[in-house]
Amino acid sequence: MIQVYAQNINGTWFSLACAEQQVFGTSFGETEQKAIGNLLNNLLFNIPFQVFLAPSAYAKDTFALLENIFEGKDVNLNLNLAVNNLPEYTKRVIKATMQIPVGYVASYGSVAKAVGGGPRAVGNVMAGNCFAPIVPCHRVVKSDFTLGGYGGGLKVKYQLLTNEKRAYPSSIEIRLDDGAMQIYPVELALKDARFDLFT
DNA sequence: TGCAAACCATAAC
DNA sequence: GTTATGGTTTGCA
Length: 199
Prior knowledge:
Strand order of the largest sheet: 3-2-1-4
Low-confidence stretches: none
Order of helices and strands: EEEHEHHEHHEHEEH
Largest sheet: 4 strands, mixed
Radius of gyration: 16 Å
Number of strands: 8
Oligomer: single chain
């Protein structure tokens, strides 16, 4: 039985699906309904779940982690994510995406180059990301450094990236199991962002 | 700039 | 099996 929780932190609703100290999905939204809706939408397991009003200790800890990520802080991600049932390619993309540090972004194309496959396939994985914002899909942008899309809305993507500014001087290459991935300072993606594109 | 074609793993049928 | 669908990219006018 999977346990589902929702909690409001500083005006944002976070949602969590977990069992046995293992995270099956996370999400967030403007309202409690949206947060849980997003969560269940992406949850691909057809397993019974139960919604709890009061968070368990484990849920509390995880919510605190989500909030820290949301605010752009550097956090230690030693969470136990339930990815075993996901398709092989999806796992690879998730793993690579989690290697993007705070303060940097990657493009769909550079992720694709690192894990194989094409940019659109990477976009597909992001669109179904069950672990936002733990798996930092908001750090993946288009090759021209416009934001691309975001499940939670582009405004949120912009906000998250703004919180993660670290003023790194240049792009670097990070090593993955499979290959290498080029990542760029997040400022590049924020420079030309215009709010009128968000509506 | 703007448009069309190539791109590639999933999910749905 | 086959088709449709993207949070894309690239080339070309």
